[in-house]
Amino acid sequence: MQTKKHTNYSERQIIDLLRQGSQWAFEAMFIKYSKELFVYSLQFTKSSEKAEEIVHDVFLRLWLNRDKLKDVDSLHPLLFQMSRNHLINAFRANVNSPVFEEYVEHLDYRRAESHSPLEYEEFVGQLHRCLDKLPRQQRIIVVKSKLEELSPSEIAEQ
Q: In sequence order, what are the residues at sequence separation of 6 or more whose Cβ sits closer than 8 angstroms to the Cβ of residue 72?
């Protein structure tokens, strides 16, 4: 295998090599971003195995869709968007799970700590689209219990 120091290449150049099917470029991007994506996913999944699975799925999708990486200067936003979408899909499948509850409670903290208000707003939009897909009664209960933090007795009174 031909080895190259990725420090000699800009990320844009590595992405161009990746588009051409370079395994070296793929490995360079994996090395650069996998730990950060793992930590990002772990904070929401609370499971090393699930976080690792998300990272692998994201990079698999990156490899399978590498030919679509046109005019991309950095993979950072794309990879985190892919991770976020994967997390949202996983939480949608487990909307009544304790992990979802912790995630929703974590939203206010993320908004306060977010470096990008646009990123937060994008997530909120996706969360609301997911909630809109729930049956009406389940959506009302999830919103009241998880977002409005009402107790079961308060929800029943309403």
A: 12, 15, 78
Asked if 68 and 109 touch (Cβ cutoff 8 Å), the reply is no
> Is 37 exposed, middle or buried (CB count within 10 Å of its CB: 0-12, 13-18, 19+)?
buried
* Long-range Cβ contacts of 89-95 (<8 Å, 24+ apart): 90/45, 90/50, 90/54, 91/44, 91/130, 92/130, 92/133, 95/130, 95/134, 95/138, 95/142
pLDDT at 3: 45
**Does the structure show a pLDDT above 70 at 36?**
yes
Question: What gap in Å lies between CA 54 and CA 109, rounded to an integer?
Answer: 23
Report pTM: 0.56
Q: What is the pLDDT of residue 127?
A: 77
User: Do residues 97 and 104 touch, judged by C-beta distance below 8 A?
Assistant: no
Residue 92 has pLDDT above 80, yes or no: no
Among all chains, which residue has been given the structure tokens 């974590």? 106
- Gap between the Cα atoms of 64 and 40, Å rounded: 22
